[in-house]
Amino acid sequence: MRLNLLLGAAIAPLAFAGASAAQTVETGPATAVEEVIVTGQPQMRNRTDDVVPTLSYDLEYFQRFEPLTVGDALKRVPSVTFLSDVLESDGARLRGLDPGYTQVLINGERVPGAGVDRSFFVDRIPAELIERVEVVRSSSANRSGDAVAGAINIVLRDALALDGGYVRLGTLHWNDSEYGQWGGTYGAVWGGRVGPGRLLIGANVQDRRNPKDKFSARYDEPGGSLVNIEDQTDVRDGTDYSFNAAYEVEVGGGDLDLSGVFVRTDRYQDEDSIEYNQGIRDAAHLSTINDNDVDIRTDNLSLNAKYSHDMFGGKTRFKLGYASFDDNQFEFENEAEYLRDALPDEDRYTADRTYTDLSDEEVSGAIEHERRLTETMKVEVGVQFVDKDRETSITAPARVRFTIPNAPAPRPTQPAFGPNLPIPGGVNTIEETRVDPYVMFSGEQSNLKWEAGLRYETTDTTITDQTAPAADRVSDSDYGVLLPSASLRYSLSDTDRLTVSVARTVRRPNFDQLSPATLEEEVGDSDFLGNPDLEPETAWGADLGFERRLGHRGVVGINAFYRDVTDLIENVNTGAEGSAGAGTFIYTVDNVGNGQVWGVEFDLSTPLDFIGMETTGVFLNYSWLDSKIDDFMGERRFNGQSDYVLNFGFTHDIPTWGAAFGATYRKQGDAHSRVISEEVKTSYGADLEAFIEKRVAENVVIRLTGSNLLNSSKDEAFDKFANLDDQEARDYDEYELETESAGPVYQLVARVAF
């Protein structure tokens, strides 16, 4: 079915062109393709005309560093952090908050992701598909309100993006063996007139590899005795395939826009580790040998149709969309344990298999009407609809375990497994319906531009969990949230302007928090039970920003933000005894307490033409981030929020040589997290990237880029406890220090326009 929909999206624009041959579409000039692959000048941040504070970055801003994914590109924009592995940029954390607080849009529309927190991994979209990336710092009534931290809008190339085509051919090199590993990256895009309208089509294939080395040292407590060490290799190897198409045509006196994008990720994750007792690497102290691999195939599909027509004294828009996310994973883990309990007859071999099949589909629609009320004011009204169906199946056969001779006996290769059985909370269906009406007024008077609106979001969720007791198998929740918002932009002069925004936003509960299944020993030695009666978190937020134009193309800005989050969802103790017996409990989640988030964001993007260096561009952004929340142990920051993120760099063009070079540096501050039974501190090393390019013909550019040139590392410290009482008493179960590192990645890419 998915393949048929995709082929339909690709063929429908061409068929529609023939059916509408009597009509033509009047459009502005498309971008010449030479301007896309050969810029010839520093590329700066856009200065948008939006009332809501928005930062906009065209692909050309990122392209010279040849990012592979949207996540790689986002590393260069203000306030975006990640808690991913080295060389990975998946869950974007705008203003350092959990990905569930950040709304990720594609062409202004929501897309489903695999996360139970409704987040979307931005590394699923190849950077080659994008036209620009927008960071929307506040909320408007005509957009989904689940954007407490803000929204990231990934705008894909449309039918007006190019006039002509280009081919991208390249090779990648990873430094994870004596001679390294090689891969390829290939892409092609073409845009032009087809029939009465304009068509854009593109395809991209790129190899992806993430080789890391990890080392862990485990102690009985901080500063205590060394218990064991673990040496680990972790290689994630795969290929991304993508295809996109867009067609714009005039139909019946209105404008029709059809678009589709499909992305497939094939990935194999291979983790191998060896543990040694007391940190001594010899056979006498060998503790475990572990082999943990995951075979992953993920498909993302998004199809959209938009039609706008002048009617009822204004303009009416009709939208219809379909988006799906399919994730299939097979994971196996084989582990040989030697002398773990100092008892020879208990040396053993264990094997586990897990099968994951997740399917998430969303059908969306909208009817919106905009009309002018006076010469200086207009109104927009509309209703947006989303219907989600999510099916999850996580099954596994019973663990295979049997004793083995003492080390170094060989391990069996293929143990016999029984039938696959659902894991607790692993087989469920989720049906969620949202109907969101809104009204928004906007106007412009002299130096002032403003908007104000009201949005009402309704959510009806039904979760059926096949692993829960029959009486609790089906859970329902429904609620409505009123979301006011207002923004204004005041021009102080031709170069200076001030923006102010106030908005209420919402974060819906995670699906696993709503599910009525009981997960044994999920919280340390204690169990976890979902709460179907959870209400969403809501937040009142304010942004105050100042922006100045520097010369003709430069921009400098500073923005202060504040969020007051209420009805925070946190773990609470039911008081019931857990499955592990005395001293353990069943925990659940509830809406408890409030939290505050605040910070200051500075960004600069400008050519140095004011000092006679018009071919040199510099950029700098720095965000200071902070927050406060009260949990079961007192005050802390929001989990995983880095205290700062810094980016700066430059590009320099040499027009007489047809060449350019540049570099960018990134550093992210420490992040702390605290949940029941575990506390984590995460630190990252600095990341340096550089490029050099040469135009070898009018329409050909060759570019060499290098990333992770400082061999960045990720360092984590884990404080682990058996239960909450031990955590409060600082009676450690284990203290672990883990570090992972990876080497540089190089790309040699040629872009040829035609």
TrEMBL record:
Signal sequence interval, chain numbering: 1-21
Domain TonB-dependent receptor-like beta-barrel positions: 246-709
Predominant cellular place of this UniProt entry's protein: membrane
A cellular component term, taken from the record's GO annotations: cell outer membrane
Name of one Pfam family that matches: TonB_dep_Rec_b-barrel
Localization, UniProt: Cell outer membrane
Keywords in alphabetical order: Cell outer membrane, Membrane, Receptor, Signal, TonB box, Transmembrane, Transmembrane beta strand, Transport
Bilayer topology term: Multi-pass membrane protein
All copies of domain TonB-dependent receptor plug, residue ranges: 59-151
Keyword Nuclease on entry: no
Domain of life: Bacteria
Similarity comment text for this entry: Belongs to the TonB-dependent receptor family.
The protein, known as: TonB-dependent receptor
